[in-house]
Every structure is written in C-alpha cells, then in structure tokens.
Amino acid sequence: MTETVGEWVAAARRIAVLTGAGISAESGVPTFRDAQTGLWAKFRPEDLATEDAFRARPSVVWDWYLSRREMIGRVAPNAGHLALAAFQARHPGRLTLITQNVDGLHQRAGSEGVLALHGNIFEDKWLDPPRACCRLEAAVPGSPPHCPQCGNRLRPAVVWFGEMLAQDVLAAAERASQACDLMLVIGTSGVVYPAAGLARSVPRGAKVVVINPEPTELDDAAHAVLRGKAAELLPDLLRI
Ligand code: APR
User: Fold this and answer.
1) From the candidates 91, 118, 146, 223, which is the catalytic residue?
2) What percent of the chain has pLDDT over 90?
3) How many A from CA of 24 to the centre of ligand 1?
4) How far apart are the first and last CA of the chain?
5) 189, 234, 237: residue to mutate for ligand 1 pocket, most atoms within 8 A of CB
6) Which is nearest to 206 in space by CA: 231, 185, 233, 187?
7) Which of these, 7, 152, 169, 187, has the minimum number of CB atoms within 10 Å of its CB?
8) Crossing angle for the helix pair 2-11 and 230-237, nearest 10 degrees?
9) Under a CB-based contact definition with an 8 Å cutoff, are residues 199 and 174 in contact?
C-alpha cells in the first residue's frame, strides 16, 4: 500500500496535508488525548482549554500552558516534520500544510505558509477586548500577566474549545482542500471540527490517505490507510 501511495504522491499536482498532535508525538510532545502526567494528571485538557476554565481558574490554566510551552521549547522537529518541509522546498507551490498543532514544530522544521488552524502556543493575546491602555510589552508579569491599568489579562493565542477559528486561516485551508488531488491526513484522531471536515471536502476524484498507528474517525473517508508512525513513513513516502 505504501508503494501505491508513493505513486499517488508522485502523480499529485496539488497536495493538501492535514496534521494533528500525532506528528509531534515522536518529538516527545504528548498527544492531546494522551493521559496527562504529574501535576496535571487530575485535569482533562478539555477542562483546561476553554474560556470558562481560564476565567474560573486563570492561574491553573496559565501555568498549564506555561508548562506546555517549556516542554515544547525543549523538543525538536522530527523526521516527519522535516520530510514535509523538504518536499515543499523541492516542489515549490505543490504542497499546502494545514495543522491543528499549536507547537510550531512545522515552522521550526522550515515549512512555509503553514496554516495553523488552532493558533500558536508561544503567542499571547488579551482575554477581553484590549483598551487603549492594554499593551503587550507593558503587561505585568504574573500568572497570568495583566495590564497594569485596567487589569485585563493575557491568555495564550490558541483556539479553545467552543471558539471560532481565524476565518482567513480556515478559508485558506478550505481552498487548499477543495483544490487538491491528494490529501494526507497525518496524526489526527479526526474528532475535532471544522479541521476534520477538511478531509471530507476534497474534490471528487481526489485521494485521501490517513497515516496513523491507530484507527481514526476519518478512516472511512480514506482511499488508503497507512498504519504506522509519521516519522517512520513520511521520509520514504515523500522522498521524490
Ligand atoms: N504518528 C502518527 N500518528 C500518531 C503517532 C505517530 N507517531 N502517535 C500518535 N498518533 C495519533 C494517535 O493515534 C491519534 O489518532 O495521533 C492522534 C492524536 O490525536 P489527538 O490527541 O486527538 O490530537 P488531534 O487530532 O491533533 O486533536 C485535534 O483537538 O484538542 C484539540 O485543539 C486541539 O488541535 C487539537 C485538536
């Protein structure tokens, strides 16, 4: 099957790639739905990554993101991220990378024009609409940092459960999905929408390939399922 998919890659003129937490697993970033460890074991990510959770327990949620930032800062892109970036460099304009990940590892691997549907964990934004006094560089450090004048708090610039995606990023991802002749769905459980819906929006005749060691909610949309790890399969699949 890997050989057939390799032929599809070689033949495809426009490839859309949708990645999820699984592509970063081999870098050492625990996937979102993996059990949390240590201090965080008693929380479910779904109960931390919401605006309500942040308003109810701002320092708990801020510190959780801080710990994730520190952990992600210590790891490096793996062979899967690098294979995608190298393919893009060898074939300019042929591959659009759409990711649900907020870890920035695709960008660090050198991928261009990454459509980060769920934002960037290393950036902050204001919790409430910023007033004239709210300046990022003047925020008072804390857990979370806040505006010294009005008390508005900083939060990570990621998309929380129940929030809208940035409409321009989503629209670009939809355009790439609707124009592709091959979509690779890598390392995502396919349970979170609208991201997962992209795999179902490819044109008639386009091929969808799921790359994942475990069954996913998108397997039924796939023309081929490669059961394996991203960092092991991608270098070979994308070697042309
Ligand atoms: N290679 C490929 N896939 C892997 C690997 C690997 N080495 N290791 C694990 N996986 C797969 C798992 O089998 C699982 O299907 O990665 C997937 C990770 O799924 P989730 O943890 O649900 O992550 P994801 O699909 O990215 O979540 C989507 O949900 O929580 C929100 O905003 C968050 O962006 C996230 C979104």
Assistant:
1) 118
2) 87
3) 9
4) 17
5) 189
6) 185
7) 7
8) 50
9) no
